[in-house]
Design brief:
single chain; 83 residues; alpha+beta; 3-stranded antiparallel beta sheet; 2 helices; 3 strands
Length: 83
């Protein structure tokens, strides 16, 4: 399973409609599918727009002891808890 790489929207005369997120491998095929759905009148007419999704990473959220208990005891997964 590939991570999403693009948010797909249609820029129409009356606004912009987000229709999906898609990975790099399926971008071109999905663009063709959206165009065919527009031609059939099932999606609004307009320009198909692909916005690259940016990954956001943060280390400012720290786990509470209850989180580690859930991970280690209830799920049976070792964590990086510092004792």
């Amino acid at each position: 399973m590939l991570p999403p790489a693009f948010a797909v929207s249609i820029k129409a005369a009356d606004g912009e409609y987000m229709v999906a997120v898609v990975c790099d491998d399926h971008k071109d095929v999905f663009g063709l599918k959206v165009a065919s759905l527009q031609a059939a009148g099932k999606l609004p007419s307009g320009t198909i727009h692909f916005d690259r999704i940016k990954a956001v990473v943060t280390d400012c959220v720290t786990g509470m002891n209850d989180d580690y208990i859930d991970i280690e005891l209830n799920r049976g997964i070792n964590s990086d808890r510092k004792i």
